[in-house]
Amino acid sequence: MDMDSYTRFALSLILVLGMIFIVAAGLRRFGPTGPGLRTGRGSTRRLRVVEATMVDARRRLMLVRCDDTEHLLLIGGTHDLVVASGLAVPAAPPPIPDSPPPSAAPTGPAFRSLLDRVSGGRP
């Protein structure tokens, strides 16, 4: 192969990678649903999947939250099914207070006398 073939290969590779980058940037910007159906960056999302688990090879059980209500859905298979609707969102657990840092080993005279008592006066 001569240098012309290597140059043409490198330019073709750069062109293909550039096209892949442009398509990926377009999908990120507009998304698969289109630009009008997504929320803006400053707004809060109203719909989200809280948890999902596989029931079997074809069906999935999903807990979906919309505003302050959760819905349990069974999707996949021949049809989708709403298992439970209008579930209240559980309250957040109270935060765990920070525990105090562990103190250093005691080195005072009380600890020394305790060591002497335990060891029987042996050094």
From TrEMBL:
<feature type="transmembrane region" description="Helical">
    <location>
        <begin position="6"/>
        <end position="27"/>
    </location>
</feature>
<feature type="region of interest" description="Disordered">
    <location>
        <begin position="91"/>
        <end position="123"/>
    </location>
</feature>
<dbReference type="InterPro" id="IPR022781">
    <property type="entry name" value="Flagellar_biosynth_FliO"/>
</dbReference>
<dbReference type="InterPro" id="IPR052205">
    <property type="entry name" value="FliO/MopB"/>
</dbReference>
<keyword id="KW-0975">Bacterial flagellum</keyword>
<keyword id="KW-0472">Membrane</keyword>
<comment type="similarity">
    <text>Belongs to the FliO/MopB family.</text>
</comment>
<keyword id="KW-1003">Cell membrane</keyword>
<protein>
    <submittedName>
        <fullName>FliO/MopB family protein</fullName>
    </submittedName>
</protein>
<dbReference type="GO" id="GO:0044781">
    <property type="term" value="P:bacterial-type flagellum organization"/>
</dbReference>
<feature type="compositionally biased region" description="Pro residues">
    <location>
        <begin position="91"/>
        <end position="104"/>
    </location>
</feature>
<keyword id="KW-0812">Transmembrane</keyword>
<dbReference type="GO" id="GO:0009425">
    <property type="term" value="C:bacterial-type flagellum basal body"/>
</dbReference>
<dbReference type="Pfam" id="PF04347">
    <property type="entry name" value="FliO"/>
</dbReference>
<dbReference type="GO" id="GO:0005886">
    <property type="term" value="C:plasma membrane"/>
</dbReference>
<keyword id="KW-1133">Transmembrane helix</keyword>
